[in-house]
Write a structure and sequence with these properties.
Strand content: 15-25%
Number of strands: 24
CATH architecture of the largest domain: 3-Layer(aba) Sandwich
Shape: globular
CATH class of the largest domain: Alpha Beta
Strand order of the largest sheet: 8-9-6-3-2-7-10
Length: 725
């Protein structure tokens, strides 16, 4: 390990940057494709250039000087060299001022007076002040013009384009020589018009200048089509492999039957055995359905049946339960949990935040504790903020199996947490957990693989489900419970803040409660925390006699709980909060939601927040209050988000629009989830390649398994472990 650390410390800054970007193998470099291209194959006269245009021209340096006002800079005066039709050089062109704010002695040497150079950059100014260029690229006039378009690659700090280009082309050359782009798609199954892979990759790094740059940059060129098809095929094969590997694993059959012998052994309670009550005691699922204060909707009943069928199999369930805000996913999860408990196994529910986990805990304790206590079982609570004594008690009942259901945050995956017989894992808001966290939970297994039910209140559009969730089954609750009132959504400027406060007063007089949400963004936590604090003070001053609470992520967990308890019990009229109340908080008496700086929130997040109101019988509203900033204008993306919120309350339609606005990587939160995001394919335009890949994946895997695994390895490399999560 020490050797590794030492060798790592000897790496140059660009080498470390390459590692940071995951460009470790030659194939990684070869598949690191350009963002855009610059045409350095042609010269253009400075006299014919327009303001803001990028051009390349020949010049002779007239003078060079280091100036210090307004800041240190290198100022170079050049005169354009015009090449006549007979190819003789004439120095009678326009003058241009070149400025560099960052420069080295080597640049001063290259630009010494009398030197002939080739410059490329953006033309600024003109008229009496003359034309200027800031930080143009500089080459000797004797350097031949490139014969291909110059690629511009995605990069990071410490990794200059010139260094990255050399690294990419070196990796590409080795890949081509070693046959890394050998065809993995038999000719019989190749789609008509697809370029050979090797040709496509080489072309995209060094395209001919005659090709349409627009076709290259919007990825509609045939070379890009091959890359998109390849990538989608790798994704589909990898997920099919993962699904088939899971089918080889063995899971406990959770059919709800727990024998009396097993019950006697588990409970050591002979008083319960041999009575007529044994049968009802063993069926917690049936008892839960009888005590619920509501009937399941048709959609809930349908997905419960889908889940129970899976749980009865001896292969692990791998299912996503998706439903709109307030559709009733928690009760479905509770029924799945009781089926597990009725089968003699433990269930764990993991939620991303302590507030959300505690909401689940209270609801599940209310439903299940009376039923579990008859069998000497309990619901355990695990969180990072627990006191040592309480936590130790929870760890003990979890390890002995007395805790039939364990609810908590990331704390449930810590090393000291031991389960006796884990049969079902429930993960709420699954996209907010990283891959490493999901794998850590699976590592707690002893013999059998548990069944896995992931829940998401962010509905997944069909094309995403076909692509990113091709390896799991999806259950959808597409019906809201009766009694949910529609929420009126208004979009207003923050200049109407006083009117909003008047609206709050009116709701409070009716005995209702109000949320006021302020954004909290990691890069500027201090600013946003101040914003929440100032808003809290403003509302306290504007609403005398009203209890106005404040809730944010920096508060101690005990204070958070006290604030939420006061609001939930109706002792607090207004709750000023950051987005910690995004999911899970259920206060039916809250009828108004004000979201400040709504333009800074994602569309699905706005929809989640809006779902905190309209949970009771009272008419409810959501006010999206935006600030257009110094420019006085909202960005197009912000306008699209706010318009979508005002036009629809359908979570599935909102998810579809969110996908259009942000793309799949942002939709899922790629950094959080670890999902293998598509780099090249676009699900909104490449549906035909997704269909082609879905159809071809099982054929390749069954008939050409070596080629199929070679294809996946080329594209995913060390990301294959993520598929197990």
């Amino acid at each position: 390990m020490a050797t590794s650390d030492k060798s790592k410390s000897t790496l140059s800054v660009p080498q470390k940057a390459l590692m940071k970007m995951g460009l470790l193998r030659d194939i990684d470099l070869a598949l690191h494709l350009p963002l855009r291209y610059e045409d350095e194959t042609k010269l253009k006269s400075l006299a014919l250039s327009r303001e803001g245009e990028n051009i390349q021209f020949l010049a002779v340096v007239k003078s060079i000087d280091v100036a210090f006002k307004p800041r240190r800079q290198l100022v170079v005066q050049v005169e354009e060299i015009i090449v006549s039709s007979e190819s003789s050089l004439v120095t009678a062109g326009e003058l241009c001022t070149i400025r560099f704010f960052n420069f080295y002695p080597s640049l001063q040497k290259t630009l010494a007076a009398g030197q002939r150079v080739r410059l490329r950059g953006e033309v600024r100014g003109g008229g009496l002040m003359g034309k200027t260029m800031m930080h143009p690229s500089v080459h000797s006039a004797q350097t031949p013009l490139p014969e291909v378009l110059t690629p511009v690659y995605p990069t990071t700090a410490g990794l200059p384009q010139a260094y990255l280009r050399r690294a990419v082309l070196t990796g590409l050359d080795r890949c081509v020589r070693l046959g890394a782009f050998s065809e993995t798609i038999p000719q019989t199954f190749a789609a008509p018009g697809l370029w050979p892979l090797s040709k496509a990759v080489q072309f995209l790094h060094e395209p001919d200048p005659s090709v349409s740059v627009y076709e290259l940059e919007d990825k509609s060129h045939p070379a890009w089509q091959r890359l998109k098809a390849e990538e989608l095929l790798a994704q589909q094969i990898s997920q099919l492999i993962a699904k088939r590997e899971r089918l080889e694993l063995r899971a406990p059959k959770l059919d709800g039957s727990l024998s009396l012998d097993l019950m006697r052994e588990e409970l050591k309670n002979d008083a319960l055995i041999g009575t007529q009550a044994d049968i009802s005691i063993a069926s917690i699922t049936k008892q839960l359905l009888e005590i619920l204060p509501f009937k399941l909707t048709n959609a809930q009943s349908r997905v419960v049946q889908e889940i129970l069928v899976d749980l009865k199999k001896d292969t692990p369930m791998y299912r996503l339960l998706q439903g709109d805000v307030g559709s009733g996913k928690t009760v479905v999860a509770a029924i799945a949990a009781t089926q597990c408990i009725d089968s003699g196994f433990q269930c764990v529910l993991m939620a991303p935040t302590e507030i959300l986990a505690e909401q689940h805990f209270k609801k599940l304790v209310g439903w299940l504790s009376p039923l579990l206590e008859k069998r000497g079982l309990c619901v355990a609570w695990l969180s990072g903020s627990q006191k040592k004594k309480e936590r130790q008690a929870m760890l003990e009942v979890t390890q002995t199996g007395q805790a039939a259901l364990v609810v908590g945050t990331h704390a449930v995956i810590q090393d000291q947490v031991k389960f006796k017989s884990l049969g079902l894992v429930l993960i709420d808001e699954q996209h907010r957990f990283g891959v490493a966290q999901r794998l850590a939970l699976k590592d707690k297994l002893i013999d059998l693989e548990p069944h896995l039910l992931m829940m998401s209140a962010t509905p997944i559009p069909r094309t995403l489900a076909m692509s990113y969730y091709a390896d799991l089954d999806v259950s959808t609750i597409d019906e809201l419970p009766p009694g949910r009132t529609p929420v009126i959504t208004k979009v207003i400027t923050d200049q109407r803040r006083a009117q909003v406060i008047s609206r709050i007063e009116a709701q409070l007089q009716l005995g209702r409660q109000v949320y006021w949400v302020c954004p909290l963004i990691e890069e500027s936590e201090a600013i946003d925390l101040t914003n929440a604090t100032q808003t809290h003070q403003l509302l306290r001053d504007s609403l005398p006699g009203v209890v106005v609470g404040l809730l944010h992520s920096k508060m101690p967990i005990i204070e958070k709980k006290e604030v939420m308890k006061a609001f939930t019990e109706g002792k607090m009229g207004v709750l000023v909060s950051t987005t910690v109340i995004e999911v899970g908080v259920d206060v039916p008496n809250a009828s108004l939601m004000v979201i400040e700086h709504a333009e800074r929130f994602g569309l699905s997040q706005l929809h989640q927040l809006r779902g905190r109101v309209g949970r009771g019988a009272a008419a409810s509203a959501c006010v999206l209050m935006y600030s257009s900033g110094e420019s006085g204008k909202l960005s197009q993306t912000a306008r699209d988000r706010l318009r979508a919120m005002a036009e629809t309350q359908d979570g599935f339609e909102i998810a579809r629009r969110d996908l259009e606005i942000r793309g799949p990587g942002e939709f899922f939160g790629a950094r959080q989830s670890g999902t293998a995001m598509l780099r090249f394919a676009d699900l909104s335009t490449d549906q035909k390649w997704l269909d082609w890949a879905r159809n071809l994946a099982p054929i390749l895997l069954d008939q050409f398994p070596t080629l199929a695994h070679q294809h996946v390895s080329r594209w995913l490399g060390n990301k294959l472990e993520y598929l197990k999560a």
